[in-house]
Amino acid sequence: MRADRKGYDPARILLSVSNTVSTSLSLKEVSRVVLRESINALGTDHSSLFLIDESRRHLMLEEVMGFKRDEIENIKVLGSWEAINTQLVKRKKPLMVNDVHRNLLFKDKKLPFSKERLPVSSFLAAPLIKDREVIGALIVSNKKRSMRVFAKEDMHLLRTLSNHVAIALLNARLYEDMRELFISTVKSLVRAIDAKDPYTSGHSERVMRYSTAIGRVMGLDEARLENLGLSSLLHDVGKIGIREKILAKPGKLSSLEKRQMRLHTSIGVRIVDTIKNAGKIIRGIKEHHERFDGKGYPAGLKGGAISPEARIVAVADTFDALTTNRPYRKAHTKDRAFLNIRRGSSRQFDPAVVRAFVSSYKKDPRTWSP
Amino acid sequence: MRADRKGYDPARILLSVSNTVSTSLSLKEVSRVVLRESINALGTDHSSLFLIDESRRHLMLEEVMGFKRDEIENIKVLGSWEAINTQLVKRKKPLMVNDVHRNLLFKDKKLPFSKERLPVSSFLAAPLIKDREVIGALIVSNKKRSMRVFAKEDMHLLRTLSNHVAIALLNARLYEDMRELFISTVKSLVRAIDAKDPYTSGHSERVMRYSTAIGRVMGLDEARLENLGLSSLLHDVGKIGIREKILAKPGKLSSLEKRQMRLHTSIGVRIVDTIKNAGKIIRGIKEHHERFDGKGYPAGLKGGAISPEARIVAVADTFDALTTNRPYRKAHTKDRAFLNIRRGSSRQFDPAVVRAFVSSYKKDPRTWSP
To answer: Chain A interface, mutation test: which of B188, B263, B281, most A Cβ atoms within 10 Å?
Structure first.
């Protein structure tokens, strides 16, 4: 295989691309690598990645590179544009246009090509095909090298490149689908468990949302945020082991009933313990009723001995308990709950977590609405 | 890049390999492709793939190609063999041995190299590295071309090839880890729900095992088996919505209580309906108490109008109900349950499902033990 006239070697380029795009199973990361590599390989100003929607008829913009923010809105139109759809999705062929403004296809006045709206003068579009099905499209625009003109060999390169990245994109999609299936299944089971206690409907999901918001402010990385999410979603799972009579009791619990209710953290641990790799989520469940001053349950742990996840869930859990109706009182207002938590800093709660809570509460009030 | 003397072009080979290995997220499939492609690329009799265990110190045999069944046991030894471990796992370097029987490294008498036990005369081993960590090893043995001698360029090729397949293997592992986390989480939540009904502890998991066994005999593909598995695991999830008093009632249910109990299929549908892509698993839950003769509930569907998944779950569910203790009677023996189900063919059950049940029950009695 010889290097072509332009001095780039297609086999080497493809090899590097097909390696780089496979190194992640995150759709966002894979997309970014695909866009960066296609800009480099073809020498263009921008590139855009479209994925097919569920009806398998429309191309939806997934990610772009090289465009300004205002221009991105306009590039979306390309995905539903007749000429692109016919050639790429129906005929499964690439499309090369070297002078947008002179080309007959572009008489359509609705298209946003102009210096101000979408400064694209030439583009090359190829379908992404896996198992003979079009799963998306890759479009590069504004050739910089070779007199600003796309040639046949560019078309060949983009086409081959598209075949290679299709697999990586599909794998990333499969992985994210599995993750979403996982999270949505766990959510629906937890919702069913919450429903046994008429006073806590939707509680677990809200605590998950609150905990994740606090974790983000505290700078937790994606992997830890994911564990925190799962841990907070499952923090009350042990309530399934508490009798309905106690859960739904409208009045105050007797001290015996209270003792039984408090078992929910250890019952939760027993349930979750059978999960493969549960180690990372179990402490958020076990210790979410511990207090920073050591006066909590079940173990009376103090300060840093409580896992960071549990210290976060404690604040999120309390905020939700305060802002929803309980058997023994009406819901507090958000602001009253906010003050309550701030007052609990260093006693019930880790002050660092309370600071993160305060910052998130002030910056993003929408997250903190029950 | 020029083709080398042997007439094979490393870039082309690598390109083809790195594409082929990425087309699946199944560890088994990816492994097979890796082995096949390395045998082809290097022209050897066999190849073997090892993956590192959780302690990150031992190489465990994952998959082989080209060896006879008896020889596979002996190749396992290579993974824990000192010379391989030092060179590949500790030094992260490849190892090339062209005459096993004359090489000093092989004075070790415990090694099983011999015509009868493991007919390997030369081999080439390379570590699989991702993010500077050794995740496994790829070993090809018995060079067929080039005077049966491995050369430096083979070593270079195997090394590059190993880097490429490492990513695909890791992606497959990540995907399977996520799947296992998913299944084990759902299992543990379902187990907690089962536990509310003291008579059905472990019921859902057994029905999953039975349903999958029937589905396998009926020739369902992997994707449908997976949906069937999830559907059967969740078939009784709606029982979470039934009051404890009714679930745990030791005597016979009144007709009002029976009506409430029968709501569990529709409650299950409501719970599962919030899961993304639940479409494929919902009918197994909704229709698992329908009867083939149309006399079931909730809709009185008949024959083929009942989804295949629900027709399978119906048999699996009944077999488990018959072979475990119930509030109103002791468990039947397996053989009595077997006869009961056979007698229900065409009336309560789809005869095709009963045939598959009979065949699985006779062929694989271990699966059918509560």
So the answer is: B188
Of A1, A321, A249, A223, the residue nearest B181 (C-alpha): A223
CA–CA dist A87, A206 (Å, integer)? 46
Amino acid at A18: S
Rounded CA gap, A207 and B224, in Å?
35
Residue A341 structure tokens: 């938590």
pLDDT per residue over A87-145, tens digit each?
A: 999 999 999 988 887 776 666 666 777 777 888 889 999 999 988 889 999 999 999 87
Residue of A nearest to B269 (CA): A188
> ipTM value of the model?
0.78
Output helix, strand, coil percentages for chain B, rounded to the nearest 5: 55, 10, 35
The answer to whether residues A27 and A172 touch, using CB atoms and an 8 Å cutoff, is: yes
Closest CA–CA distance from residue B296 to any residue of chain A (Å): 26
Whole-angstrom distance, CA of residue B181 vs CA of residue B175? 10
Closest to B202 (Cα-Cα) out of B327, B324, B310: B324
Q: What is the pLDDT of residues B67-116, one digit of tens each?
A: 998 889 888 888 878 888 889 999 999 999 888 877 766 666 667 777 77
pLDDT band at residue A341 under the 50/70/90 scheme: very high
Q: How far is CA A99 from CA A118, A123, A148, A155, in A?
A: 14, 8, 10, 15
Any chain A CB within 8 A of the CB of B272? yes
* Contacts with B343 (C-beta within 8 Å, 6 or more apart), sequence order: none
Domains of chain B (ranges; CATH) run: 10-173 (3.30.450.40), 197-363 (1.10.3210.10)
Burial pattern A239-251, b for ≥16 Cβ within 10 A else e, equals bbbbeeebbebee
Per the document, the length of chain A is 370
DSSP, collapsed to helix, strand or coil, labels residue A324 as coil
What digits encode the pLDDT tens for the residues B310-344? Answer: 999 999 999 999 999 887 788 999 999 999 999 99
Rounded to whole angstroms, how far apart are CA atoms A131 and B18? Answer: 17
